[in-house]
Model the fold of this input.
Amino acid sequence: MLQRPQSLLLLLTSICMILYLATPIWHKVGVGEEAILNPYYLAHMKGTLAEVNKPVYYLAVLAVLSAGVSIFTIFQYKNRVRQMLFVALNSLIGAALLGTTVYHIQFEATKFFAPDQQGEFGIGFWAAFAALVFNWIANRLIRKDEKTVRDADRMR
Done:
């Protein structure tokens, strides 16, 4: 059924991934300089000119893939085992997305200027983290449903 709590959590997962695509992930502001990471590029700007503009489109591809897998998983409610498989796949995609995001922040973006200054995480970063948490909770609820069904079949 579509009105199960895990369906709502999977919908929230896809909404968080869309939010990840629409908002900045990380930024750092200095005197006359700014570094920005969003799902499409990593930029270091001095004044209004971009000194470094590195495309990171694979972050956007991973986010779209994760949102698509969670929407697809919602409609797999008739087969809970398949649904658990897709939720596990989505967890791997989300973990890869967060891992590459943190890599870009820690090893590339912070070194542009003032390496001792860390910068601030944007809404996009926290949205990706929330999507991973919602996905994990949905997986737990799907497993609980499967266990309940198996226990009921055993009692017959």
